Amino acid sequence: MTYHSWLQCIHGCGRRYSIYDIVYRCKECGGLLDVEHDLEALKDRSAAEWKALFDQRARTNEWPYGSGVWSKKEWVCPQVDVANVVSLGEGNTPLLPISPLRFGEGLGEGLWVKQCGTSHTGSFKDLGMTVLVSVVRQMIADGKPIRAVACASTGDTSAAMAAYCAAAGIPAIVFLPQGKVSTAQLVQPIAHGALVLALDTDFDGCMRIVQQVTADQTIYLANSMNSLRIEGQKTVAIEIAQQLGWEVPDWVVIPAGNLGNVSALGRGFLMMKELGLIHRLPRIACAQAANANPLYLSYLTGFEEYRPVPAQKTLASAIQIGAPVSYERAVKVLRAFDGVVEQASEDELADAADRADRAGLYCCPQTGVALAVLFKLVERDKILPEHRVVVISTAHGLKFTGFKVGYHEGALADVVARHANPPLELPADIQAVSQAIDQMVGSGGSRM
Q1: Is the terminal CB of the chain with fewer CB neighbours within 10 Å at N or C?
Q2: Which CATH number belongs to the domain containing residue 323 in this structure?
């Protein structure tokens, strides 16, 4: 059976385009485009056969099926030649069970954190970028005159795009808001040889510029309004079900910025349900920073009203976005999944990240937002102890060392560092050292 996918307008006109067309919005009505698949063709395999195939590929090094994305190639991008796949071993990230004894009251035994930050460049953005850059490589092989790939970014998207473009030998152009990304996020695209342009604006301003630049069709847009990215990111949902023995959690909590990840998560679960691999859908909780919360404000109106907001500075810099491109997609998913939206203050997200760190996770501030929202929903009895919950951790904490240092130095604005744990500076004296140890653990106590 030959599998096939295409781009299709999410609005009523339903116009279709090839995945190799250089188009990001419908030419008829201006609507966003989604990748759609021939589901009838995919039904040539039973649900049991798809599960067996995906499980077998999870244990292989056969190129490119050892990737967490390309192990689902038929569901993601069936047309791309294997020779043009650009993979850096993305996906297959751990689903860690978390003990409620270490994490907080009111949580049941069924709590997991999906550690997407262990992917190649340290964030879930790898999952979408492997697909997009592979399609661009295929287009170049087929004769399309693409000179470069470009994106606006708050950090993680640029790192992923630069790495995959470097692996493919394709020039990369990055637009970053000046002074608003961590050093670790800034240095990644620099190290991979990208042209990095730090603009005196915020992410939304960078996004406006990159859309103007990519009106030149020889420069290909890599932001999440490009639905090829979402196709790779939807494999997070498939991995979660696979790692739970093809079962579905009751809740998935996910940080929300530009909102492509919310759409991707929903698409993954919906595709599994349509093809019979699962029989119900989880509820989705979107977590926004209170300083950049347009989706939350819209949720308060039942999604009847929506206004972009000027995104204020937040420690969760990767979701410091006031005009999310994928708003329509996210609302569609939230309605289908009986979803909720909640926000977290700077103090709440920092405290939640600290609680996670003290349980051994070392999470990014965006994951701190998701965990803070989890704790709020537990306190309100929205999430109950018997519920199985997966929290999506979107990036590695090592990308946000400044956030961690600032917390333990008590230097973060609007944050009470309740468990600051700076190093003790002592003389090289055994008595002083022994006294410090005794104060911490001498009577069986602990600073934890």
Answers
A1: C
A2: 3.40.50.1100
Containing structural domain, residue 375? 95-120+230-408
- Measured between its terminal Cα atoms, the distance across the chain in Å is 57
DSSP class of residue 120 equals T
Cβ contacts of residue 46 below 8 Å, gap of 6+? 276
Strand (E) or helix (H) holding 342: strand 340-344
Residue 105 pLDDT > 80, yes or no?
no
Taking only the tens place, the pLDDT of each residue in 118-159 is 999 999 999 999 999 999 999 999 999 999 999 998 788 999
For residues 224 and 128, the answer to whether their CB atoms sit within 8 Å is: yes
The single residue listed with the structure tokens 């340290």 is 122
Q: Which of 291, 271, 295, 294 is nearest to 281 (CA)?
A: 271
- Give the residue ranges of DSSP H helices in 245-385: 260-274, 294-299, 327-336, 346-357, 365-379
Q: Which residues have C-beta within 8 Å of that of residue 146, sequence separation ≥ 6? A: 22, 136, 139, 140, 170, 218, 219, 220
Any idea what the Cα angle at residue 255 is, between residues 223 and 249, rounded to 5°? Answer: 115
Q: Which residues are bridge partners to 195 per DSSP?
A: 173
CA dihedral 20, 25, 30, 34 (to 10 degrees): 90
Measuring CA to CA, how many Å separate 192 from each of 56, 159, 165, 170?
A: 33, 8, 8, 11
Domain tally, the chain: 1
> Is 110 a domain residue?
yes
CB 250 within 8 A of CB 388: yes
Q: Is residue 245 assigned to a domain?
A: yes
- Tens digit of pLDDT for each residue in 172-198? 999 998 988 888 888 999 999 999 999
Element (H, E) at 133: helix 125-141
Residues forming beta bridges with residue 288, ordered by sequence position:
343
Q: Are 174 and 151 spatial neighbours (Cβ–Cβ below 8 Å)?
A: yes
3-state SS of 236-249 is HHHHHHHHCCCCCC
In a domain, 258, yes or no: yes
DSSP state for residue 312 in the 8-state scheme: P
